[in-house]
Amino acid sequence: MKPGRRNLITDVASLVVGNASDGVLKSGVTVLSSTSPFTAAVHVMGGAPGTRETDLLAPDKMVEKVDALVLSGGSAYGLDACSGVADGLRASGRGACEVGEGGRRGGRASDPAAEEAFRPGARGRWLADIYHLARQRLRRAGVVRVSGGGYCTY
Predict the structure, then answer these.
(1) Which is higher by pLDDT, 54 or 97?
(2) Distance CA 71, CA 4 (A)
(3) Where would I find the H helices in the chain?
(4) What does pTM read for this prediction?
């Protein structure tokens, strides 16, 4: 593989990289995004890593592309940085959970009413409103008060 002009990750066409840090907290976060969803993979190492949703990148899972990757420390602050990125993606109309027919079928298998949480996407894919699905499952489990997650994710 031939290195890019500067041999940096920013040499990758359409990849956008942002970074923020807090000197007092002694922590930081780096976000990789792109002009369109991209294929991603992860390899987690360490004795007690803090991760968020990395299992969804396994080859046998329903997520094929992502809108962003967040690299941070594993503390509560680092993991919560993902929430800010998700909010920003959602505000810009991105970040929907896109699934294939298998993901839609699996979502409906446990609750046929889940059908209303899916709408057709591009290329035979489906957009899943994960907040709606979560609220349905919580209600079914007897949880009557749910706060947060008031956004439609598609």
Answers:
(1) 54
(2) 22
(3) 76-91, 101-109, 130-140
(4) 0.61
What's the rounded Cα separation, in Å, for the pair 76 and 1? 37
* C-beta atoms surrounding 100 within 10 Å: 16
Phi/psi of residue 91, nearest 5 degrees: -65, -25
Q: What is the mean pLDDT of the chain?
A: 80
Question: What is d(CA 145, CA 88) in angstroms, rounded to the nearest whole number?
Answer: 26
Closest CA to 116 of 102, 135, 100: 135
Secondary structure in 3-state letters for 63-101 = CCCEEEEEEECCCHHHHHHHHHHHHHHHHCCCCCEEECH
Q: What is the pLDDT of residue 30?
A: 92
CB 37 within 8 A of CB 98: yes
